[in-house]
């Protein structure tokens, strides 16, 4: 009985880590999509500011990717704990 409970707890750990990694990935994708949409909108409104908008967009996307990578690493570490 105790072995079954331990196996169930481990299975729930793997399941929650997988769900967490998926949520992190979806959140990062939505964030980068929103950034790209606003950058295109800003460039359409002010074409002369396209270079500034593009560089700000790339920096912000890199920050979002860093946070997403950190979230996935935490999920995988919790799964292998």
CATH top level class name: Mainly Alpha
Distance between the termini: 22 Å
Helix residue percentage:
over 70%
- Which whole number gives the mean pLDDT? 91
Q: How many helices in DSSP terms? A: 2
Count structural domains: 1
- Oligomer status: single chain
Strand composition percent: under 5%
Poorly predicted residue ranges:
none
Q: Give the CATH H-level superfamily.
A: F1F0 ATP synthase subunit C
Q: What is the H/E string? A: HH
Q: Let me know the largest β-sheet.
A: none
Write the layout of secondary structure elements.
Blueprint: H1 2-45, H2 50-79
Q: What features would you describe in this structure?
A:
This protein is mainly alpha-helical and 81 residues long. It has a single domain, classed as F1FO ATP Synthase (Up-down Bundle). The chain has 2 helices and no strands. α1 runs antiparallel to α2. The two termini are 22 Å apart.
What labels describe this entry?
F1FO ATP Synthase, mainly alpha, 2 helices, about 80 residues, single chain
Concise summary:
The chain is mainly alpha-helical and 81 residues long. It is 91% helix and 0% strand.
């Amino acid at each position: 009985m105790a072995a079954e409970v331990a196996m169930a707890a481990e299975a729930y750990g793997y399941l929650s880590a997988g769900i967490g990694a998926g949520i992190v990935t979806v959140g990062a994708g939505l964030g980068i999509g929103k950034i790209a949409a606003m950058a295109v909108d800003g460039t359409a409104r002010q074409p002369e500011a396209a270079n500034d908008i593009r560089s700000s967009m790339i920096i912000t996307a890199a920050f979002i990717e860093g946070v997403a990578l950190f979230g996935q690493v935490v999920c995988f570490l919790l799964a292998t704990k």
